[in-house]
UniProtKB/TrEMBL annotation:
Protein name per its UniProtKB record: Serine protease
Homology family: Belongs to the peptidase S1 family.
Listed Pfam families: Trypsin
GO biological process, one term: proteolysis
SMART domains: Tryp_SPc (SM00020)
Entries under InterPro entries matching the protein: Peptidase_S1, Peptidase_S1_PA, Peptidase_S1_PA_chymotrypsin, Peptidase_S1A, TAT_signal, Trypsin_dom, TRYPSIN_HIS
Keywords: Disulfide bond, Hydrolase, Protease, Signal
Record-linked SUPFAM superfamilies: Trypsin-like serine proteases (SSF50494)
Gene3D superfamilies membership: Trypsin-like serine proteases (2.40.10.10)
Organism: Amycolatopsis carbonis
């Protein structure tokens, strides 16, 4: 449920500081799966150079993607209620704990005006940095009709988020590849538990049996299809649960309005 997103963003700093251990009773990833992102594998920033760390008040908050030398695309639920002065962007780091990255402050935030915390539609924001970063920006999918959103297309998600539901965040950058899930099936699963899946501004990705997903702390980070930024990590019912794929912002659907803020 959407309350998850709010609670998690607020709690993440605590998770990092306290190194909270997975709560008893939390569904474990499927047997035999590596507990990374959830069910993923290590990667490096060289493989996904546009991926940035998005800290708030000096603590891990979300991720994002460099989409122009001084612009970062992230999730609106990561910027809601946060002032630019509290934000810091770090590019070029594989490990969260490294101090080798390029840092930038944020001077301005454009948050999609159609976003609401309750509905999570149009979950995208563009941050303006106080300097250019030197990494190659991501290329965006430009339309909701793009083949990237066809059921079964391979979506690769990367981030430093938790490696299981209620688990610990990852120090090293992780990736996982999951197929785009059928929209109608996903909508039905979420409607059954009272969440409204907006087919226009969202898409789902995951394996039916669960075990592979993005999770808390991955929010705002990239979901690539064929090397293009197709999605932004947005929300889900827990993480990697059977029958509940992860939900991503449909970047193609909002391409026009996003690109109008890339200067
Ligand atoms: N809302 C979460 C965050 O703020 C991301 C949740 C993604 N969930 C999922 N099951 N894919 O970090």
């Amino acid at each position: 449920m959407r309350a998850d997103a709010r609670r998690v963003v607020a709690a993440l700093a605590g998770v990092v500081a306290a190194g909270v251990v997975a709560a008893a009773g939390a569904p474990a990833a499927s047997a035999g799966q590596e507990p990374l992102i959830v069910g993923g594998t290590p990667t490096t920033i060289d493989e996904f150079p546009a991926t940035v760390i998005f800290n708030v008040d000096g603590a891990q908050h979300c991720a994002g993607s460099l989409v122009a030398p001084n612009k970062v695309l992230t999730a609106a639920h990561c910027t809601d209620g946060v002032k630019p002065a509290q934000m810091e962007i770090i590019g070029g780091q594989t490990n969260f704990s490294d101090t080798t990255g390029e840092k930038a402050g944020v001077t301005d935030v454009w948050q999609n005006p159609d976003f609401t915390m309750d509905g999570m539609q149009h979950d995208n924001s563009v941050l303006t940095l106080d300097k250019n970063l030197s990494f190659k920006p991501a290329t965006l999918v430009q339309s909701a009709d793009d083949p990237a959103y066809q059921t079964g297309a391979d979506v690769t998600v990367v981030g430093w988020g938790t490696t299981s539901e209620n688990g610990d965040v990852s120090d090293g950058l992780l990736k996982v590849t999951v197929p785009v899930a059928d929209n109608a099936t996903c909508a039905e699963a979420y409607e059954k538990i009272g969440d409204n899946f907006d087919k226009a501004s969202m898409f789902c990705a995951g394996v039916p049996e669960g075990g592979k997903d993005s999770c808390q702390g991955d929010s705002g980070g990239p979901a690539y299809v064929d090397g293009k930024l197709a999605g932004i990590v947005s929300w889900g019912q827990g993480c990697a649960r059977e029958g509940f794929p992860g939900v991503y912002t449909n970047v193609g659907n909002d391409y026009q309005v996003i690109s109008s803020h890339l200067g």
